[in-house]
């Protein structure tokens, strides 16, 4: 019963209980006269029921009229109610109601207030904590359990007193007790301040645990052994000569950092970051070249088949002319081809493998794997990351991310990684002009499509994301093609979507790349990796449904050549607040790092990194935007503690890691 419910809240021991902190506080310490109540602020009133009625308009509800000593009348409304509540609120009863007063349908009202009838008990002495909970576990039970847990906690602090004094932080247990049962003089508003010392202490402890475990992981890696890979240029030189462009300074710097790491005898863990279109792919290819020149195998892994395929095609184009064999391995590869690929990887006849996490199944063995390149690593699940770790603890790893990661997040979640940033776009690009257009004006956009094609340019048209149904999504795409073809009969229109077989997809893409298809209608498969510099118009339908990272990625498919490019975001009303906020950000910004920063603000770091899906718990207490000073303190302290007070490190990690295994940063 209760244990199972606690488990749902991730509570399995007294530490978990003690760290289950209030979501907010209710103030039942005093009574506010209705006449004095501010609207929109929770207040407790005490009043006599003067009338009770069930109304049916505008919908069925219980409406109770109460009047207090100030002589003011207030309506209490309940859209869902039980007979017991009707009894509680019988005419003549004196009750206390806690809620926000606002001007409503009937006049001044409280909707679904918390009602108390035990008024003879007197007022509460301090604020009442309200905890996150699940169905069937009520607040009083949770409160009792937490109070009991607090009594059983050992009194010792993980951090020495001198250190706390230096950091101006209160003791741990004192902070916890404060937050669970705040002293009477504190108001609910004070307690929401993240700068309250008690909150600061918890946030700091959490951040410190994270920094410590990241540092330890890093030390462990640096003391591990890997083969030093030194290239001699016999692959990279012809590759560079055939490219048709020179590397930017930022690309050169990144590749220098990477080849330097590869030449070390401990495993590389480097993140290659760069905005859309900044030219990450060639840098990865050059890293792969260096490893292959040294005689070692390279595996390139992406989280989805579509993404992996883009890399496969690009690497084919670059490496096949140089006589390098590449195998493709994904979940959809048939048994026979799969066996063949596995054999070739095991006996070393193939140097380069590209694919999804199918590359790291137990039954795939490499002859001499030297480098693993992982694209969009944060989109992999925990199990997949572990599989990778097991395969390649002593292997050099290069992570690639097209999602720019804000500095605070990088400092926190990627503290174990070295980072190379490509902060420069290839020369000759003009920024993409973004337009927000109501979908009722779709025909104007069709004119723009025609205009663009007449000028010899090409167009992407992205169909709406329909998460519930892939079939419906495909249908929409087919309809869009028909509609566009009717409106623009003179144009050649292609269609690409997730259900096409790899060969069919490749054929559609090839036609667009060579320019025989002018308009490419697509489901969001073109999100990442597609690169057709002649395309200069991107139309995105139902842009309001898409996330910022995705919009930025999609928009980044144009503006990759010298031509001035446009991105038209079609939206449909009504727009929710979040959708509005996202569209505003994408309209006002072109810099991926700035967009990511604002995205982080809108969504919070957990969702930003796709943590919900991958199951990696993120920070519970600290907030990376507002707690940057604490994060910096924790980052500075971690190495000092590790070298000078290992016993403190142990104690602190034990307390926090039993909570959250995720700090290990798998
Ligand atoms: N130094 C350069 N000079 C000119 N063009 C370049 C240079 N580097 C890369 N490019 C070209 O720029 C385009 C974008 O490169 P690439 O596909 O590697 O981008 P990316 O960083 O992977 O971006 P995205 O995340 O948007 O896919 C490609 O057409 C590539 O050939």
UniProtKB/TrEMBL annotation:
Any one GO MF annotation of this record: 3'-5' DNA helicase activity
Cited InterPro entries: ATP-dep_DNA_helicase_RecG, DEAD/DEAH_box_helicase_dom, Helicase_ATP-bd, Helicase_C-like, NA-bd_OB-fold, P-loop_NTPase, RecG/Mfd, RecG_dom3_C
Q: What residues does the Helicase ATP-binding domain cover?
A: 261-422
> Is the keyword ATP-binding in the record?
yes
Q: Is Endoplasmic reticulum among the key words of this record?
A: no
Enzyme class of the recorded protein, top EC level:
isomerase
One of the GO BP terms on file: DNA repair
Catalytic reaction equation(s): Couples ATP hydrolysis with the unwinding of duplex DNA by translocating in the 3'-5' direction; ATP + H2O = ADP + phosphate + H(+)
Q: Which UniProt keywords apply?
A: ATP-binding, DNA damage, DNA recombination, DNA repair, DNA-binding, Helicase, Hydrolase, Isomerase, Nucleotide-binding, Signal
The Helicase C-terminal domain covers 455-601
Q: What is its EC number?
A: 5.6.2.4
Instruction: Give the matching PANTHER family.
Output: ATP-DEPENDENT DNA HELICASE HOMOLOG RECG, CHLOROPLASTIC
Function, in words: Plays a critical role in recombination and DNA repair. Helps process Holliday junction intermediates to mature products by catalyzing branch migration. Has replication fork regression activity, unwinds stalled or blocked replication forks to make a HJ that can be resolved. Has a DNA unwinding activity characteristic of a DNA helicase with 3'-5' polarity.
Q: Which family does it belong to?
A: Belongs to the helicase family. RecG subfamily.
Instruction: Supply the name of the protein.
Output: ATP-dependent DNA helicase RecG
């Amino acid at each position: 019963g209760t244990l199972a419910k606690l488990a749902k809240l991730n509570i399995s021991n007294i530490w978990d209980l003690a760290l289950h902190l209030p979501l907010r506080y209710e103030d039942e310490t005093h009574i506010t006269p209705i006449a004095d109540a501010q609207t929109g602020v929770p207040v407790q009133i005490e009043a006599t029921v003067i009338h009770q009625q069930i109304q049916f308009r505008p919908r069925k509800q219980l409406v109770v009229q109460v009047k207090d000593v100030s002589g003011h009348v207030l309506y209490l409304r309940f859209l869902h109610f039980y007979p017991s509540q009707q009894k509680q609120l019988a005419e003549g009863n004196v009750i206390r109601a806690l809620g926000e007063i606002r001007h409503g349908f009937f006049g001044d009202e409280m909707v679904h207030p918390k009602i108390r009838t035990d008024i003879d008990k007197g007022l509460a002495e301090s604020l009442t904590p309200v905890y996150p909970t699940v169905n069937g576990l009520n607040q009083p039970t949770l409160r009792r359990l937490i109070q009991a847990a607090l009594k059983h906690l050992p009194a010792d602090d993980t951090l020495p007193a001198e250190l706390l004094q230096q950091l101006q932080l209160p003791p741990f247990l004192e902070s916890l007790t404060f937050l669970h049962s705040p002293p009477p003089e504190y108001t609910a508003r004070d307690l929401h301040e993240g700068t309250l010392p008690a909150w600061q202490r918890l946030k700091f402890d959490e951040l410190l645990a994270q920094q410590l475990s990241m540092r330890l992981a890093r030390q462990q890696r640096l003391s591990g052994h890997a083969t030093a890979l030194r290239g001699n240029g016999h692959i990279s030189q012809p590759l560079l000569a055939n490219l048709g462009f020179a590397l930017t300074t930022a690309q050169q710097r990144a590749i220098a950092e990477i080849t330097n790491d590869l030449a070390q005898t401990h495993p590389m863990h480097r993140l290659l970051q760069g905005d859309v279109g900044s030219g990450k792919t060639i840098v990865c290819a050059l890293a792969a070249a260096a490893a292959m020149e040294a005689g070692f195998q390279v595996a390139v892994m992406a989280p989805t088949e579509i993404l992996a395929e883009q890399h496969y095609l690009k690497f084919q184009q670059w490496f096949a002319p140089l006589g390098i064999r590449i195998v493709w391995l994904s979940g959809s590869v048939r048994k026979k081809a799969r066996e063949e690929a596995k054999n070739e990887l095991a006996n070393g006849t193939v140097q380069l493998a590209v694919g999804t996490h199918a590359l790291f199944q137990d039954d795939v063995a490499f002859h001499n794997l030297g480098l693993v390149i992982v694209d969009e690593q944060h989109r992999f699940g925990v199990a997949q990351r572990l599989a990778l770790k097991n395969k390649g603890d002593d292997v050099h790893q290069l992570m690639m991310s097209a999602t720019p990661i804000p500095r605070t997040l990088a400092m926190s979640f990627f503290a174990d990684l070295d980072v190379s940033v490509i902060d420069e776009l290839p020369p000759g690009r003009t920024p993409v002009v973004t337009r927000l257009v109501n979908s009722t004006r779709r025909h104007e956009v069709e004119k723009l499509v025609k205009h663009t094609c007449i000028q010899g340019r090409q167009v992407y048209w992205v169909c709406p994301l329909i998460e519930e149904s892939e079939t419906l999504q495909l249908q929409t795409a087919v309809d869009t093609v028909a509609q566009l073809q009717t409106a623009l009969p003179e144009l050649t229109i292609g269609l690409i979507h997730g259900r096409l077989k790899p060969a069919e997809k490749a054929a559609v893409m090839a036609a667009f790349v060579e320019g025989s298809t002018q308009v490419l209608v697509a489901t969001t498969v073109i999100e990442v990796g597609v690169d057709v510099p002649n395309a200069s118009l991107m139309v995105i339908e139902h842009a309001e449904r898409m996330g910022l990272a995705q919009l930025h990625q999609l928009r980044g498919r144009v503006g990759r050549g010298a031509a001035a490019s446009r991105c038209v975001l079609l939206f449909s009303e009504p727009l929710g607040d979040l959708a509005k906020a996202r569209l505003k950000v994408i309209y006002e910004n072109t810099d991926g790092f700035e967009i990511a920063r604002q995205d982080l603000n809108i969504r919070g770091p957990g969702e930003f990194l796709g943590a919900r899906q991958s199951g990696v718990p993120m920070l519970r207490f600290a907030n990376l935007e507002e707690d940057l000073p604490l994060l910096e303190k924790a980052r500075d302290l971690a190495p000092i503690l590790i070298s000078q007070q290992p016993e403190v490190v142990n104690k602190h990690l034990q307390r926090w890691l039993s909570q959250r295994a995720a700090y290990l940063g798998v």
